[in-house]
TrEMBL record, chains A, B, C, D:
This is Chorismate synthase. GO terms for molecular function: chorismate synthase activity. The keyword Lyase applies. PANTHER family: CHORISMATE SYNTHASE (PTHR21085). It holds the Pfam family Chorismate_synt. NADP(+) binds at R46, R52. FMN binds at R123, S124, S125, N236, A237, G276, K291, P292, T293, S294, S295, R317. Reduced FMN (FMNH(2)). Its EC number is 4.2.3.5. Belongs to the chorismate synthase family. The keyword Flavoprotein applies.
Length: 363, 363, 363, 363
């Protein structure tokens, strides 16, 4: 199933080393201003080849708008976006076409379909997330212009390293999306050592949405948190999702966790902005765990497509920490979920005006 | 959206203190043997009123089969199940009908719909999960009989307490679903003290599926792990979901995390049985975080429906740790996801026979 | 698939001779006033046992509201409705349990599922349409109150008999929903003769919606006319659907068919109120063909479940013309489609206010 | 909603005069052989510019496969197809950009979205059907190879002209898909006179599927006939759909209509191969009414976007009878519905083997 969303429906296609990747964004309200240049900033944030800490593959990621936009605005018909692959090196993968790389989707695609496209992971490559980020550019615009909702994120953990400060101004000023400028040299050394060792490491990304009004989310199987969880878990290499305090809630007392409120605002936000699957008007707080990349030049024990034992060594161009480039992808998925839920809320509850009383978010 | 699943579609209805709760299970293959008595064991495992550690509400949870079964077998038409509410005490809630209980869905339903059913949390009550467990009885049966897949779970953490052993035989022999019989007295004391304090605590539930063949799960937006994440997060009070090593992956090295394999089997299962969103044939490992109950007799600062500050005290019958009864609910959601994905896999890949080579799960 | 609609989702369940039939209406806006008594008028219009021209089965069709309504208004959670079957005579069908009745779904259900519930046609019985009519009571109310949209229908042909006048006042004053009071005696004789002969006959029903604003319907695969066609064709015994001039368009010239317009209004309505799959603001005109009932006491050649030739004679209680009771069912399906499309339109195009210029419908 | 199908999901995009049109076919089983050349024959059958009786627009309709195919076979990931528009003449439409053409979607798109792409009808153009035909090439292949199902069609009426014979060999040998070779000169004269008059005319297309096994189709809202009706009605200019005897059933007696059977086969096929929404194993017979084209050089009374009365004269390149090129489009929609239903049947009923007794189709 390559379509995401119920009313804002994003269908992506394309393989890592095929001729192109693309998406169709269906259900867009008419009148949203969109130009090819709008996609460049977020695609650049996600792109490979920008620092020595990420994969060296270089793609222009130039977006062609094929439909759905007339005279610079969406028309209500499906917006199709196309990005040509220009730096695919299929031959890098000849060596491993007959092997299943440990920790990869090679074996599971093979088992599911009885075949696979081995070039660069084919459809299972993170290259696919390019189009999620592209589609979310439209969602971010609409959310900001129509609802004042803003989505942003940062790298909240890199292996053992935790931020010592959380400064939004720092995040976009370093290649790690790290919220503490002072730690950047430390991260550089960390990554250099890691790359030298031939190993990889996991990471945690936190994404936040501000301005979300209370009322978005559909009980009981289309809950806002449930759809965020699915959205994040659908990103390559994700192994865990938390809303608000997440797993820390396990050890909390109810008297602490429950966010008390006064007419002047909520007094805490342990819930991360969602109660009963519906937004509370507080900040949405989502945290995502990325596993370490499995493509390593360190040899591993594996099996080939004949069923024989092999030693697998992955060359090619890979990220030693996929989490580093994941911040814009997590933002994208959160934005797509929010826009979809906003449209669904409008469909069912458009009759209901603004409801009193409104409790302001925690100051 | 009160329907769950794409091909096995479970629609639930009913409020905590309405006349009845029920579900419609659509898409069931024909020929599954089902009798009213089949539902009793799992509903009893989930039920309130079974020990002093859970809510005292007593419901018979007698299931009436309204359709879809003829001469003891499913016919392929929708299976409708009905459970009458018999111990609803709406008047317990009169006091709080005009207030928003902190940490509850009261405020968010009010904001979404401009109205709410305040009796027992209405639709947001965990009473709704009764029907998930009932629907999953069918899924568990089909999975076991057709595919040899078994789903089971246990309480993996209660507040600060962690199991010291993991013995499946112990799990069903205590009211906590705890895998270490020796610790049960400790848990009893822990819960007694908690109840006396008027407070509540969170918990962690782990669910495991064995026998899942490789190949279930749909890239890229219907991934097995993504749908499990949504399923778990749709359960009341859940704040986090992990697959395999989950958040522990953040600090792991790739050389450790990637599950190496030989023709005799996988050598580890950090991935929790899913790679690229598709089952690998290993055990599925899912871990879920439950927040502490927000309904406490300890007073909290809140807001009433006029927007005025109030002190909220919750009486009624509540669980001091909702996680205690959550094991069968988590099992249910995993079983529903698996059956749905099994049907989806059969639809698309039924042409493909069993694929070689098969790597056995870790011994 | 027993769910109808994308945003207003109606799931029905129940067999003709099972304990009950019911439905879940999900996606209802909150605040719609609904009481059990609201369902009675339309269910009575559809009911059997009302005249000698329809089946003699007598059901009370008393609707129990199980959820989704609090203090007389919808809350936004799923509305579940239940009707107990009280006059099912399963034993009428013992004789045919081992045979496939010609022209019935007996054989096709058997082939699909390898089993079937033979009592009264099981799930394939028109009894299921009771819940469509019940669900549509909510849709009709919302459409009328919020949008001024009204849906009504009449019997436009009974066998060879065509109406000589079209008077809405006559329609509800006779058991045929016939629009010409003067012809009712003729129809009575026609039906008496038919019943005496042991045979049955087909019919045509026309349904009309007034007040539909321009803009409802989703290109290109959720077109208003496409969804109406599916809705009508999903009714038992329907073999054809027309929008506007329908099959008469085949012989028309474009200069005649295209509905010209002036600022004072459209000059004709050959299109039946839909252009490009979107409502034009004109009356919606839909015409539906019903085949003659296949359950006859006249013997037919058939096959039994052993594959042997048999002579099939159907006793039981059947309608000699199913079209007679079909008018409220066709209305129901049109109302459900319209409410669903209204919600979908609001979701995507709620940003767009009323658009100028508006061309009035044909006077 | 620009996606068609539940398990075989076709998403199309593109405007008549935009840079390209395309589609994504998701849910394809792996292993289907597909090459760019496979699309040429059916696209040529549908194409404009092939005879003087259809629009003179000339498009190469060269299909680029962007994803989902590796080494000549589908991999199970989404198949994306792209066709560049090469002969779009946007300026032909400058004159009518400020007018609503009578009988067109101009006005309804404008009302829905508050905007529209006026060039060639934008998204509402029949150009979109190119991608339906392309997608269905895959479906036709799979249906034929896996199930021996074949879909074909012919023009069953052109204005007042009816075929005097029905010879499949004739159909592909004339530009009208007419089943009687002897009548072709008559049709040529008919169309020449029509074109000279500046007017247009409607048509009827009949499509037939052979080899469909009994059991496809999902009661009660995913019936095979209901989905065929929606599929056909979603084609531009369609105003009516019939299954089997269709509207002729209205005047039939049940003793005639019900298809009797013996162990050697059905004795008739009035039902058109569908009973209770499920295929019976007989030929599927579907008939579709096309309205006459509304784009005429004959002036019509209309309204402009300022709301003023205007005289509308359409130049540009148009078909005087859209039905002439519609046969492959109707075939395509039937093939897509059948493949989708085949996959859905396999999902739910894959457990059930071939069921006895099988009644052969009418000889």
């Amino acid at each position: 199933m390559n379509t995401f969303g119920q009313l804002l429906r994003v269908t992506t296609f394309g393989e890592s080393h095929g001729p192109a990747i693309g998406c169709v964004v269906d259900g867009c309200p008419p009148g949203i201003e969109i130009a090819p240049a709008d996609f460049a900033p977020d695609l650049a944030r996600r792109a490979t080849g920008k620092s020595r800490h990420v994969s060296a593959r270089h793609e222009d990621d130039a977006v062609e708008i094929l439909s759905g936009v007339h005279e610079g605005r969406t028309t209500g018909t499906p917006v199709a976006l196309l990005v040509r692959n220009t730096d695919a090196r299929g031959k890098d993968y000849d060596a491993i076409a007959g092997q299943f790389r440990p920790g990869h989707a090679d074996y599971t695609y093979w088992q599911k379909y009885g075949t696979r496209d081995p070039r660069g992971g084919g459809r299972s490559s993170a290259r696919e997330t390019t189009m999620r980020v592209a589609a979310a550019v439209i969602a971010k615009k609409w959310l900001a212009q129509r609802h004042g909702v803003h989505v942003r994120g940062y790298l909240a953990q890199l292996g053992e390293v935790l931020p010592r400060a959380c400064d939004w101004a720092a995040v976009e000023a370093n290649p790690f999306f790290w919220p503490d400028a002072a730690q950047v040299p430390e991260l550089e050394s960390y990554m250099d050592a890691l790359r030298k060792s031939g190993d990889s490491v996991g990471a945690r990304v936190t994404v936040v949405a501000t301005g979300v009004p209370p009322g978005w989310g559909e009980p009981v199987y289309g809950k806002l948190d449930a759809e965020i969880a699915a959205a994040m878990m659908s990103i390559n290499a994700v192994k865990g999702v938390e809303i608000g305090d997440g797993f820390a809630s396990v050890m909390q007392r109810g008297s602490v966790h429950r966010d008390q409120a006064t007419p002047d605002g909520f007094l805490s936000n342990h819930a991360g902005g969602i109660l009963g699957g519906i937004s509370s008007g507080q900040q949405l707080l989502v945290s995502v765990a990325f596993k370490p990349t499995s493509s390593l030049r360190l040899p591993a024990r594996g099996v080939d497509i004949e069923g024989k034992a092999v030693e697998v060594v992955t060359t090619g161009r890979h990220d030693p920490c996929v989490g580093i480039r994941a911040t814009p992808i997590c933002e994208a998925m959160l934005a797509l979920v929010l826009m979809d839920q906003a449209l669904r809320h409008r469909a069912q509850c458009g009759d209901v005006g603004e409801v009193s009383p409104r409790i302001p978010p925690q100051a």
